Inverse folding.
């Protein structure tokens, strides 16, 4: 069955460092992959979309890579700030614009 | 744009009662999705509509759940009768196509 794995343990890093979050998947051939940020008590907020024929996408301090051979996406936040603390969700897109979400990884950036 | 609007924000109801959750998508978005989020199972897709037509409802857990989209600006998710295991946060999201979703703030449902 399809499976999306994100590290369920919280990632704690120091302010200014680069945070790297991992999304692995099995039994899936997504046409694209998206990353979302979710704060407590709020809905997920869309950050980036990367398609299967793209290796890397950047937006300000964010960078996403997509390796369809390894079936893995990496999400980087450079020069991290305490305001970046949140849960980050990856989502795989397929036919009909349906998204399947991973369980999310909680990021804590300490000052 | 006010974004995706969901109501109510919180709902507490007794087991066996009917619950109706409401959603107003962003104007111009042709896809609408209902998700349920719990600590144990994360975000699960319940049903999605494209141009007001239900496309995939395989995520709807039981016949107690039903969803409608009578027009492009309104959708409902109904649970009848409700059970304690339905307690979760229900999100509505809309999208203009193969792009990012815009989620509402969610409805936190508690069934006692």
């Amino acid at each position: 069955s399809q499976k999306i794995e994100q590290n369920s343990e919280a990632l704690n890093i120091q302010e200014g460092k680069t945070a790297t979050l991992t999304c692995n998947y099995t039994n899936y051939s997504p046409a694209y992959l998206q990353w979302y940020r979710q704060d407590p008590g709020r809905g997920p907020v869309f950050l980036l979309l990367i398609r299967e024929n793209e290796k890397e996408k950047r937006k300000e301090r964010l960078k996403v890579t997509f390796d369809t051979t390894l079936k893995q996406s990496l999400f980087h936040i450079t020069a991290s700030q305490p305001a970046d603390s949140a849960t980050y969700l990856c989502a795989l897109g397929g036919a009909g614009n349906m998204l399947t979400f991973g369980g999310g990884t909680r990021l804590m950036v300490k000052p | 744009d006010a974004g995706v609007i969901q109501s109510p924000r919180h709902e507490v109801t007794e087991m066996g009662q009917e619950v109706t959750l409401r959603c107003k998508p962003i104007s111009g978005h042709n896809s609408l999705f209902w998700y349920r989020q719990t600590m144990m199972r994360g975000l699960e897709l319940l049903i999605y509509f494209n141009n007001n037509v239900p496309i995939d409802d395989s995520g709807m857990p039981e016949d107690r759940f039903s969803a409608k989209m009578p027009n492009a600006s309104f959708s409902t998710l109904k649970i009848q009768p409700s059970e304690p295991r339905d307690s979760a946060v229900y999100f509505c999201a809309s999208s203009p196509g193969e792009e990012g979703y815009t989620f509402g703030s969610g409805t936190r449902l508690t069934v006692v």
Observations:
- Chain B touches chain A through 24 residues (CB under 8 Å).
